[in-house]
Design brief:
Layout lengths: L2 E2 H8 L2 E3 L5 E2 L1 E2 L9 E4 L6 H4 L6 E5 L11 E5 L2 H15 L5 E2 L4 E2 L4 E2 L4 E2 L4 E2 L4 E2 L4 E2 L4 E2 L4 E2 L4 E2 L4 E2 L4 E2 L4 E2 L4 E4 L4 E3 L5 E3 L5 E4 L4 E2 L4 E3 L5 E4 L4 E2 L4 E2 L4 E2 L4 E2 L4 E2 L4 E2 L4 E2 L4 E2 L4 E2 L4 E2 L4 E2 L9 E3 L4 E2 H12 L1 H24 L1
Parallel strand pairs: 4-5, 5-6, 6-7, 8-11, 9-12, 10-13, 11-14, 12-15, 13-16, 14-17, 15-18, 16-19, 17-20, 18-21, 19-24, 20-25, 21-26, 24-27, 25-28, 26-29, 27-30, 28-31, 29-32, 30-33, 31-34, 32-35, 33-36, 34-37, 35-38, 37-39
Antiparallel strand pairs: 1-3, 2-7, 22-23, 39-40
Length: 349
């Protein structure tokens, strides 16, 4: 399906600069642009590409003024990245959607199934499960007893949701993710033996949450592990029992959060961040990749790096010193040698 620059500018309510009749049918990165595609420029450090790109249309900031002649048509918007995402969503929504229940699907007699849904082959819906409207359940999904899935959510192939868990509206769970597996709880009985602690709680996921592939969100020992509305979780993330993740927080790949930790709203954790158990993280905190957090972060909006994690300004100073350690070590060794020689001279007098 093709769209003209004029049509796109009307959809985005943007300002059109160039040929209103040029048409596009696909998207491309600005540095790999092709004729008939649309790109965007949101970061000024990539501005040089716009003067050479073969993309037919480029979305730019409203304050963008070119320094050279352009081959492409521009559409000026408030936020090019957000506008580009909106167009991608528009194209994705235009694709035909599967409907109905395929063969070899098990739906328990006591389960309640909504309307306008898709359930793929070899999926299993257990007793007393409640499935809302406009749900898409792809093949080989398991939904346990008493699970509730609200409207407009998507479960991709191989998702497993254990008993008693609840999933809100407009959620997306990607392939291989497990919701509600047992929390890691064992009581030591002797030096070599451990008694399993039953995990009797559940997982509560609120509206507009997206969880990437191959993640684990463990059920609570008692009560609920809670993922608040708007949270976005990357692939390969582990969230332990009784954790609470605040609204609109972002967890990047391989983050691990230990049991009973409470994470505030609007936080951002970089890749491979590790969070100890039974601590609190304040709202709007940013933690850089591979940082290790072992104690509570009480200051809102703090930025931390390192392992153990500490303030970004102190961490940068420490890293500057760390780079000089080999040179400093040589200087110290030289000083030690000189001191020893002086001691020997003094002792001989």
């Amino acid at each position: 399906m093709e769209f003209t620059a004029k049509a796109i500018s009307e959809i985005l309510k943007g300002e059109l600069i160039g040929n209103p009749e040029v048409a596009v049918s696909d998207f491309s990165k600005i540095d790999e642009g092709k004729k008939g595609t649309l790109s965007f420029l949101a970061n000024s450090k990539y501005e040089n590409f716009i003067y050479h790109t073969d993309s037919s249309i480029v979305l730019v900031n409203k304050n963008f003024e070119p320094d050279k002649e352009l081959k492409c048509t521009l559409i000026k918007v408030d936020n090019p990245y957000y506008a580009f995402a909106s167009l991608l969503e528009l194209k994705d929504n235009s694709k035909p959607k599967k409907q109905g229940v395929e063969e070899d699907v098990h739906v328990a007699d006591s389960a309640k199934i909504g309307s306008n849904l898709y359930i793929g082959k070899f999926s299993y819906i257990s007793e007393n499960a409640v499935i809302g409207n406009n749900i898409r359940i792809y093949p080989q999904v398991y939904i346990g007893e008493n699970v509730i899935i609200d409207d407009n959510s998507i479960l991709y192939p191989g998702v497993k949701i254990y008993h008693d868990c609840k999933l809100g509206k407009n959620c997306i769970i990607h392939s291989g993710t497990v919701i509600g597996s047992d929390g890691f709880g064992f009581a030591p009985e002797s030096k070599c033996e451990f008694k399993k602690i039953p995990q009797l709680g559940n997982v509560l996921i609120e509206d507009n949450v997206e969880i990437g592939s191959n993640c684990s969100v463990d059920r609570a020992t008692m009560g609920s592990t809670i993922i608040r509305r708007g949270v976005k979780i990357d692939n390969l993330v582990q969230i332990a029992h009784n954790v609470e993740v605040g609204e609109n927080t972002i967890l990047v790949s391989q983050v691990g959060i230990a049991g009973s930790t409470k994470v505030g709203k609007n936080c951002m954790f970089g890749g491979q961040v590790g969070i100890s158990g039974h601590i609190k993280v304040a709202n709007n905190v940013i933690i850089g990749a591979q940082a290790g957090v072992s104690s509570s972060i009480n200051k809102e909006g703090e930025i931390l790096l390192g392992s153990p994690a500490f303030s970004i300004s102190d961490c940068r100073k420490s890293m500057a010193v760390y780079k000089k350690l080999p040179e400093m070590y040589k200087d110290i060794s030289k000083l030690e040698k000189e001191i020893e020689e002086l001691k020997n001279k003094i002792s001989k007098k």
